Amino acid sequence: MIDSFNRQIDYLRISVTDRCNLRCRYCMGEEGLPLTTHDKILTYDEIVRVAKAAASLGISKIRITGGEPLVRKNVDVLIKQLKHIDGIEDVFLTTNGVLLADQLDKLIEAGVGSINVSLDTINAKAYNFITRRDEHENVIKAIKAAVNKGLLVKINAVLTAYDEQRPEDVLLLAEKLPIHIRYIEQMPLGFGKSENGISSHKMMRRIRNMPQISGRKIKRINAKIGAGSAEYYEIEGFRGYLGFISPMSHTFCGECNRLRLTSEGELKPCLYSNEGIELRAKLRTGCMESELKEMIKTAILTKPKAHKFSEDEAQGVYSMAKIGG
Is 192 helix (H, G, I), strand (E, B) or coil? Predict the structure, then answer.
């Protein structure tokens, strides 16, 4: 379906839980976030109903997110159901990788198209500081296992300014492995509002100055990998690509093709907005398929032209764990 600004909306990101087994400093405090009770979280049947209605309006790609989606039981069952919906071509997963190794075979059997793993650093000490958990080795092993099983793997690294993070070193994973590394500018969401980040431009300068990169050709390519809006580069001698997602320094709102469904059933046309359409109550009071489709249409047609990260306005304290990362 085409929105009011002539954008083709074909991508739905679905959060299946607000729970997470990490405590990343830019997302939440050490004690975590107030958790939603299970009765307020959409059931898998309710998610499938929304996905079917969305598919009938042109949604063809779905990403399962959280919180950490793999802390919810039987996510592979949901993925398999979504893959069987007419019109859905791909179902992807974003995870922090902590539980990935144990669930990898079931996810592949369910038909997951690719996996994004959140990993801000390959320095174990810095990882433990950022996440407040000692899971670095497990995540690295899971990434390698996924690659060995033939999955397309992308790494999402948030560009924070924490000491010892050295986000540029994450790129070295792409030298020997066919992994795409995407650097994401830190957004003013949740606890990230009070944190400093690094711009994509500054990150590129740091990459070019790395001894392992110096002298190698870096070339911009017009690759479309997955459903996102990353800019990709090819580095001479590397098996994977370098990517940047730059919502702060280079808005890509004109190309935005997505809606977000929170774990509580709110359909959000834009990540950084108070606007949304509550679907849960309607789903649980027996709304007709036609009514559900009309609510999704409304979300698409009210999608704003651009986000408002740069405006100093009272937007409340958001967290990606609540909205869906």
Answer: helix
Inform me whether the pLDDT recorded for 207 exceeds 50: yes
Tell me: the pLDDT tens digits for 215-225?
A: 999 999 987 88
Q: What ranges in the chain are assigned the alpha helix state H?
A: 44-55, 75-83, 100-110, 124-131, 136-148, 173-176, 200-208, 280-284, 289-301, 320-323
Q: How many CB atoms lie within 10 A of CB 142?
A: 25
Q: Residue 198: what are its φ and ψ, rounded to 5°?
A: -120, 135
The DSSP letter of residue 154 is E
Q: Can you read off the two tokens belonging to residue 153?
A: 């793997």
Q: What is the pLDDT of residues 25-74, one digit of tens each?
A: 988 888 887 888 999 999 999 999 999 999 999 999 999 999 999 999 99
Tell me the DSSP string of 157-181: EEEB--TT--GGGGGGHHHHS-EEE
Distance CA 264, CA 81 (A): 20
Q: What is the mean pLDDT of residues 269-280?
A: 87
Token pair of 261 as six digits: 């469904």
For residues 122 and 169, the answer to whether their CB atoms sit within 8 Å is yes
HSE-up of 21 (CA within 13 Å, CB side)?
Answer: 16
> Coil, strand or helix: which one is 115?
strand
Cα 265 to chain centroid, rounded = 18
Q: What number of residues does the chain have?
A: 325
Rounded to 10 deg, the angle between the 44-55 and 75-83 helix axes is 20
Q: Which two tokens mark 121?
A: 């650093």
Q: Name which of 62, 81, 83, 68 is nearest 22 in CA terms.
A: 68
Angle at which helix 44-55 crosses helix 289-301, to 10 degrees, equals 70
Residues 6-18: tens digit of each pLDDT: 999 999 999 999 9
Nearby residues of 192 by Cβ (< 8 Å), 6 or more positions away: 26, 27, 186
Q: How far is CA 169 from the centre of its chain?
A: 21
